[in-house]
Amino acid sequence: MDMPDTGEYEASNIVVLEGPQGIRKRPAMYIGSTSSQGVLHLLFEVVDNAVDEALAGFCKNIIISISQNGDGNTAEVSDDGRGIPVEIMPKYNKNALEIIMTTLHKGAKFNNDTYKVSGGLHGVGLTVVNALSEFTYVKVKKHGKIYEQKFSRGIPTSKLEIIGESQESGTTILFKPDKEIFKTAVFDSTRLKERLTYTTFLNPGLKIILKDDRFEQPEEITYFSENGLKDFIVFLNKSTTPITKIIHGKKTEGPMTLEYSLQYNTTYEEKLESFVNSIKTTDGGTHVVGFHSALTRALVNYVSKNKQFSKTEIKITGDDVREGLSAVLSIMMQNPEFEGQTKEKLGNSQIKTFVETEVYSLFSRYLEENPQDAKAILEKAISAANARESARKARELSRKRSILESTVLPGKLADCIIDDPTKTEIFIVEGESAGGSSKMGRDKNTQAILPLRGKILNVEKASYEKIFDNTEIKSMITAFGTGIKETFNLEGARYHKIIIMTDADVDGSHIRTLLLTFFYRYMRKLIEAGYIYIAQPPLYRVKIGKEEKYVFSDEELNQIRTGTDKEAETQRYKGLGEMNPEQLWETTMNPDIRLLKQVQIKDAQTADGLFTVLMGVDPSQRRRYLHDHAEEVNFLDI
Fold this sequence. Notes:
By secondary structure, the protein is α+β, with helices and mostly antiparallel strands. The protein has 21 helices and 24 strands. It is globular.
């Protein structure tokens, strides 16, 4: 057998990437991706450095200014901290600012003298921002002077210069993400606002001002919290009905500080926000494991000590304890070990024991001293345990009926021929009439159709048993192939596009909302993976002479009417069933020309609150929301 010719492998084949070249060659290693998420990561690196100055007690104000600059955005972050050092470092014969901006694995955060705790750990943050930016300008107020140095794509384009005098101190960094690196050099406003909101909750007394002039009406928002984590809990629970007071605890042991706030409410979901040195740990970590364990142990121990609860036959689990819990957990520590540069999961093993021990002690004492709150929490947990047991029985019954595990697809599903999920899509269609048209008009190779009969169950108010017993929901679960809740497995998805296709009226909007509520609560990973879409059928068919045109908005219709001297014959589509198969295909289903909206969770907290208010059990919250937002409605189909 002939071996393939691989060529020579000699020392001359080795490529050494120096300075910013390595970062620009493999940017995802440092910022996670080159999508909009990566662009925002650059801004967070700069902001986090300013926040570290606040954690050290030297910064009270941060100003962030975002502007449109040609084909991208620029961001300027200014703080009133101590200012980046500017002195010459003899070993390198360069000033400290230039070293910080151009050299990996350097900085004041490798020892514990300058910063006791910090979010920046690896000494790569500003170097990465500099390397991946078209330009970076740094101004430092220090020692009574104002210093400035300029860079482009990680390379200095000027020397450090004194450009003025000032008795203030601080750092200002202006940069523009490089279009050569990023798919879009635009800062995501929604995610930025979310980050700034919780940053000020975690750093009470710190004021952050966001100025964004990219819009027709420039925005200026001030973020400030006086009560820290307690304010955070109020924010998390603004759309819920609390059943306890806010429970707060704080403990310092050596270089580690634990602080948490929690409150129980009438909902069935857990909202836990966890942080280490003000950095959000999206995937949790050892501190979250310790926190969960402490809550469960404290409540189980309280049950065993109190006769009124000790006769409970069903064993309370951690899931029962966390139902209806809103909590914020913040850890300040030296040398945290994150999994990856994006810092989404804490790995320090010793922090689990510290958190579990202290939270157990603090929370146990609270339960003993506040029997009314303890009773409310335990009744909530026992109710959750009973519901869980009922759900378990319902699941067993469901499995016996082969609802989830059956390979027999729903009879009304018109499946596609190709079985490669990356190439197929399923339309969830409202009504049998529209279902018939879409079945006849579809591409049978790649498009499946699942018609729904009427409005599906509102899962926000329904028990697990009712959900498993609902015909329409069972059909979707079986068709998608992923299972739901704890049995969910994204790899089992039979389609990578699940398209909601409903009528363009109030009923259609209601059905779409019910479906989104189901996906959000029981199949959220489908949304997070980008698999859920909303079809955009036309609102009108306009005929001008012999020419026909489909129109998707009232604005477009008005433009057509004002742009012609002829009479425009207009048909308003109230339902998908009014279109024949050919019309449905060419307007709504043809991948080459159709309009689809991808459902995303950019602000999970806002989405969670809206689902609770609009679809939940408390009509007073829904009434109040509709009253407060009535003037925002610009179209109502009656």
